[in-house]
């Protein structure tokens, strides 16, 4: 299914980005107020699943945008970063729902997300995307 990049695509992308920012802010406030006990809240598994799904959707929207604008290096590095992020989400969800022993891979998954995130961010500076005025 081909998703066209038009006005409604941008509206959805902006809405999704804003929602992810608000959810992150809310989660940070709750984490500050409750501390590590946030992991024991009854609603936490549902919350982390929702955040994970929306984060994946946000990443896919961004990938579609990079592909549409022909930012090949940014697209490739963001794809790798998204795959690392999905792996980390699977590890975290397996820990939350106590499925399997994937928790042993958390440090590796986190390191992969950080390193590929740095690569992806750097690619925006040195690719054609870096010539866009909104990045300056």
Give a quick precis of the structure.
The protein is mainly alpha-helical and 136 residues long. Helix 1 runs antiparallel to helix 2. It is 73% helix and 0% strand.
Molecular structure report:
- With about 140 residues, the chain is mostly helical.
- The protein has 4 helices and no strands.
- The protein has helices at about 5-35, 45-70, 70-95, 105-125.
- About 10% of the residues are buried.
Report the C-alpha radius of gyration, rounded: 17 Å
Unreliable stretches covering 5 or more consecutive residues: none
The ordered H/E elements are HHHH
Secondary structure: number of strands: 0
**Distance between the amino and carboxyl termini:** 34 Å
Relative strand content? under 5%
State the major sheet: none
Number of helices: 4
Mean pLDDT: 88
- Share of helix, binned: over 70%
**Structural class computed from helices and strand pairing:** mainly alpha
Note the overall shape: globular
Mind sketching the topology for me?
Layout: H1 7-34, H2 44-68, H3 72-96, H4 106-126
Helix pairs in contact: 1-2, 2-3, 3-4
